[in-house]
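Reply to dn_fold:

You asked what the input looked like. This is it:
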Amino acid sequence: MNADLPIPPPRQPAAVPVFFISDSTGISAETMGNALLLQFPSVPFERRLIPFVRTVEEAREVRADLDAAMDGEVAPLVFLTVVDEAVREELRATKAPVIDFVTSHLTQLEQRLGVSGDHAPARLHGVGDSRRYNRRMQAVEFAIEHDDGQSVRAIEKADIVLIAPSRCGKTPTSMYLALMHGIFVANYPLVDEELAGEVLPQSIAAVADRCFGLLISPQRLTAVRSERLPDSRYASLEQTRWELSRARRVYDVHGIPFVDSSSKSVEEMSTLILQSLARRGTTTR
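and this is what came back:
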């Protein structure tokens, strides 16, 4: 055996294919499924949403895709929110493992209440609770208006203010919190002047107790910025290292909780943000 032969790097685990299948938008399937997947932070997942599966023919096509996925390197997982019995049974006939959020729970409720549910697809999703639906839409509008520091109008209405250097993941996290949880989120970039002075932007100083910081690895941030402005000072490793180290100082000086987004999904970051603010006693309206 040649001792000089290079040792191959450890093989990275293959991502587990995850299918969220719904007869409507899929928000319920994604929300409940991701809540379970977050319990396995060391497992990589490759997520795919298949919404509006409402006929047996459509379900048969989806089932063929699921069966084909079983021939891959890793068996898939299927999260299902379909209330039509014929459509649901066609999907459940797949060889893939299925976590059905409807069957057992709906049956238990019918037995407990002594009344049969009407098995209407819309009952599971958004508009079934008009107040919650309207809250989510208002939160999305707020997030769009207050994206990347574009506006501080009515900033006091924000439940959360995400702060970080440019391209650290503020926008997708803001939109996910708004759409999935109805949280009013503003996000604000930390620029060189504030980073150098270790200060918060004056326009959001009044809501410092609602701030939450994001970090990322310098290498990852350089790669993201290089897609936008390659070979620029903005994307250089020296610049990203400086900005991120100064951002960390800002968070420490002002007692702002933060999360590193380098290896976390937007679902994971959103959960950590909500948990942190709950511990701090910051509640949403």
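The CA atoms of residues 71 and 96 lie 10 Å apart.
Hope that clears it up.
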